[in-house]
Structures are given as C-alpha cells and as structure tokens.
Amino acid sequence: MPDAAEPDYDHLLRANLDRVFNQRDGDARAAALAELYVDQPVMYEPEAIVEGRAAISAIAGALLDRFGPDFVFTPDGPAVGHHGLGTLHWHAGPKDGPVAVTGADVAQITDGRIARLWVLLNPPAG
C-alpha cells in the first residue's frame, strides 16, 4: 500500500511563521491556528511546554508585544521534511534592524496540520 502524500512542509511552516508568529491581530491569529494546527497541539519551547491553540496564540502575542511593532520572524530558505516531520530555519529581529535571534521550527505533521511544534533557538553569536 503506498504511503499517503507528503504535506507541503514549506507552505505549512511558512504560514505558521507568518500567520501565527508574525500576526498581531488576535482574531486573525486564532483563525490561522484553527486552520494550521490540530485540535490539541503541543508546542515545546526551551523553557516551557505549551498546550492548546489558545495558549500558543497567547505566547505568540506576548512575544510580539514584548519585542515591539517592528519585530518580525523571517524564514531562511524553504522548509523541508518527510514522513510527517518538517523543519524551517528562521531569524528574527526589527524589520530593518539587526538579527536578534535565530532558530528553527520543527513540526510533527498529522493529517496535514501541525500536531507538535518544537522551537529551537540557536545560541547567541559571539
């Protein structure tokens, strides 16, 4: 029996970065989470485990509030993946300013939606 078609990792993980983690409007962010994530997702951050769409939305909103209106996450190349596991490298900082942080999102995809998301941060440069 052939395997199910692979999801579009690049589309899904870029949409997550743009529509969830760069989205300042809470209602639009909630709509994106409902589309992109399973009903009960889990996000693993270096310091916390976050469960549920509402909690992930709250974390994303708090990050954007904390770092100001010009802070943005930008993908570094296309996302890649296979067998339900995808990764997207990114950098973040002020829109026209220096890079503040770099990292990668690693996602377990179930039925075309994000079930688990690991946020991996690179150590500071220098």
From TrEMBL:
Ranges of residues in domain SnoaL-like: 20-116
Transmembrane segments annotated in the record for this chain: none
Protein name: SnoaL-like domain-containing protein
